[in-house]
């Protein structure tokens, strides 16, 4: 950033050597000024000036938790997932702050919740152990949310135990796929067995987790059904779902750039299909919204219960989440089984009652060509999930617009 500011002050970014910057030259073409020299030692970075943004604090939260502080302890990733820009941006390097520096930054954070933004936490196992020890010695207790891989959890479960001593812990996991073929297709260098085992370890240790899956536009109804069944089986109800999106700069972009169906970059938000779908587009979004709705109903019911290790942790998921079949049957019979409603949720303004009656209701196919699918009967504080389809300039039947809060795309 300093070289960029210097260059702008000089009035010409062409002299902004050291900035990784693409400049528009007025004709739409782009120009690169080259890579900035790497700052090898992250400890030389200034301490974050958190007081400058303290007035924004009430606006930020993660998994319903706030006040929240973000903190970076390392940068980069050595893996090479084809949809991910992290390793490209950092040239496959991985750099980290020293444990002493991390503890000093943590000590300056007032918020009880800390989201560690590292793309892959605990990559350096010895450092992860040392960090946990030093945080504990410093008497710091926070609710930590981190992002990591399932193979790391399987190989080093003792790290999770050590970090539990630093307060509470919740983990974002880029599971991406429930099959080895799916993982190979995105070059994840991981296995489906690791994904299952990591969730078991976390459940056993009482640690919350938020998996994220990639939804491939090439899926048919069976693929969606298989993932739904997997979620039912593992109890991974707090999952997020990203539509496979070739982001410019990634390996996936290089292989799929000629197939993209739009160059409206607003659509490249990982909740829209920008590659051709195997199913009719409306059916694809119907399936996608069903997947998201299945998890959000359960996640919000859990949040209403104020479970200490949400999602699930040591607790069982709400009874409503255990069987999709029983939910379907109840809807068919029009039966409300009051005994299934989590107690905490009932006391929270009847939120779970509303969630339990939630159904995915595609709106009518209107004459205007717009339609809307939404979860009705949602509790007042539940995140809104809407999916709207409207005619767009591409000439396809309809180009959907969707808004949803999703998990992060890394690790
Ligand atoms: S998705 Fe995660 S593991 Fe894969 S390259 Fe990106 S940061 Fe690394």
Structural features, described:
The protein is α/β, with parallel strands linked by helices. The chain has a domain at 1-37. Helices cover 33% and strands 17% of the residues. It has 14 helices and 14 strands. The protein has helices spanning 2-10, 86-89, 99-107, 125-137, 150-155, 157-164, 180-185, 192-205, 221-234, 251-256, 281-305, 324-333, 343-347, 351-356, and strands spanning 22-24, 30-32, 68-71, 74-76, 94-96, 113-116, 142-148, 167-176, 208-215, 240-243, 359-362, 371-376, 386-390, 399-403. The strands form four sheets. The chain has a six-stranded parallel sheet with strand order 3-6-7-8-9-10. Strands 11-12-13-14 form a four-stranded antiparallel sheet, with helices on one face. A two-stranded antiparallel ribbon has the order 1-2. A hairpin with a 5-residue loop joins β1 (22-24) and β2 (30-32). α3 (99-107) crosses α4 (125-137). The chain is globular. 36% of the residues are buried. Mean pLDDT is 75; it is low at 307-409. The protein binds iron/sulfur cluster. Iron/sulfur cluster (SF4) binds at residues 77, 79-81, 84, 86-87, 119-120, 149, 174, 410-411.
């Amino acid at each position: 950033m300093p070289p960029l500011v210097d260059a702008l002050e000089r009035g010409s970014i062409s002299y902004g050597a050291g900035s990784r910057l693409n400049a528009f030259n007025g004709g739409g073409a782009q120009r690169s000024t080259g890579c900035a020299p790497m700052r090898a030692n992250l400890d030389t970075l200034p301490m974050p000036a958190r007081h400058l943004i303290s007035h924004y604090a009430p606006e930020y939260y993660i998994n319903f938790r706030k006040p929240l502080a973000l903190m970076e302890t390392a940068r980069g990733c050595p893996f090479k997932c084809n949809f991910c820009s992290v390793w490209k941006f950092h040239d496959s390097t991985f750099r980290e702050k020293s444990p002493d520096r991390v503890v000093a930054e943590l000590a300056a954070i007032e918020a009880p919740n800390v989201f560690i933004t590292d793309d892959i936490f605990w990559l350096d196992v010895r450092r992860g152990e040392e960090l946990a020890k030093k945080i504990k010695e410093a008497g710091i207790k926070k609710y930590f949310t981190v992002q990591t891989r399932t193979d790391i959890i399987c190989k080093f479960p003792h790290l999770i135990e050590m970090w539990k001593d630093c307060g509470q812990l919740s983990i974002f996991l880029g599971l991406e796929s429930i099959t080895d073929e799916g993982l190979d297709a995105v070059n994840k260098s991981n296995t489906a067995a690791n994904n299952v085992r990591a969730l078991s370890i976390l459940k056993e240790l009482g640690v919350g987790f938020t998996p994220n899956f990639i939804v491939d536009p090439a899926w048919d109804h069976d693929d969606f059904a298989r993932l739904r069944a997997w979620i039912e089986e593992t109890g991974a109800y707090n999952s997020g779902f990203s539509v496979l999106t070739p982001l410019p700069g990634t390996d996936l972009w290089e292989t799929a750039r000629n197939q993209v169906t739009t160059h409206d970059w607003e659509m490249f938000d990982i909740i829209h299909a920008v590659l051709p779908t195997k199913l009719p587009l409306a059916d694809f979004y119907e399936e996608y919204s069903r997947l998201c709705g299945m998890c959000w109903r359960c996640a919000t019911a859990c949040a209403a219960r104020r479970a200490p290790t949400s999602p699930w942790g040591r607790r069982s998921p709400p009874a409503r989440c255990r069987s999709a079949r029983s939910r379907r049957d109840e809807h068919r019979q029009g039966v409300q089984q009051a005994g299934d409603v989590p107690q905490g949720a009932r006391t929270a303004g009847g939120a779970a009652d509303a969630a339990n009656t939630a159904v995915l209701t595609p709106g009518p196919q209107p004459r205007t060509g717009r339609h809307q699918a939404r979860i009705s009967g949602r509790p007042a504080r539940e995140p809104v999930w809407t999916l709207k389809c409207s005619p767009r300039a591409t000439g396809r039947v309809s180009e959907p617009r969707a808004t949803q809060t999703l998990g992060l795309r890394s690790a």
